[in-house]
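hey can u run this one w/ S-adenosylmethionine bound, need the structure tokens asap thx
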Amino acid sequence: MSGGSLDVVGTGIRAVAQVTAEARRRIEAADLVLYATDTVTARWIERLNPRAESLDRLYAPGEPRRVTYERTVARILEAVRQGRRVCAAYYGHPGVFVYATHASLRLARAEGYSARMLPAVSASDSLFADLGVDPGHRGCQSHEATDFLSHHTVFDPAVPLILWQVGIIGDWGYGGRPNRTGRRMLLEKLLPAYGPEHEVVLYQAAQYAACPFLVARFPLRRLEAVPGDPYCTLCVPPTGTSRPDRGVAARLGLTLPEE
Ligand SMILES: C[S@@+](CC[C@H](N)C(=O)[O-])C[C@H]1O[C@@H](n2cnc3c(N)ncnc32)[C@H](O)[C@@H]1O
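ok here u go:
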């Protein structure tokens, strides 16, 4: 038994196919793998390392998500403190919209344990590939939908906008009823910037190699019809163009093309 350590890895979006070589090695070498993944990846992990335990059993329907997250952190830290080399394996990128992984790493490091995160393929990486969005072209805005709504978030309609967890706006639990008020409020926030006919894209990356990704394109005014699916992301393409700052470009010695 070692002195206790924590590796946090992601298994990507497409089951098993996107696990990196280094993540696989961490899973194999661990004294205990704690996983929160799709079922195909879960079975693969269990075959790779029989010392594996699902974090799903810590989820309780109807409970606020935050309570489950804290219970998950407690389970991960308990195993590290027992002196085990723990590998926490999460669906997607383990550092993208995952409270428990960041909190566990912070705690483990504060207590002097070796703790690190490996990157992986996230839903936004899949979206860039499937929808042809390049975050390097005029940037990219990315927000959790409820957070976007409940803060005075400043956004720029000339830059692509990605809204995560759009199917579960205003839901602090697990897949309650679709929140109509939340959708209406999101519509009210976006309408002045984009107008009712602006086309938005509801996106679902393929979870299995043989399946296609799914997109539904519709005018913004129909936003209230978004299904209550926790595994979809809204992409709002830019409207208009961002204005070049020719003064700054000149000071950089650059000549911008005429519009
Ligand atoms: C708690 S976050 C987890 C994100 C995950 N860690 C990642 O790296 O993509 C869940 C949100 O990720 C997005 N998401 C997860 N799976 C997706 C998929 N297959 N297609 C599109 N979006 C997805 C959705 O916005 C969903 O509400």
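The CA atoms of residues 26 and 87 lie 7 Å apart. anyway lmk if its weird
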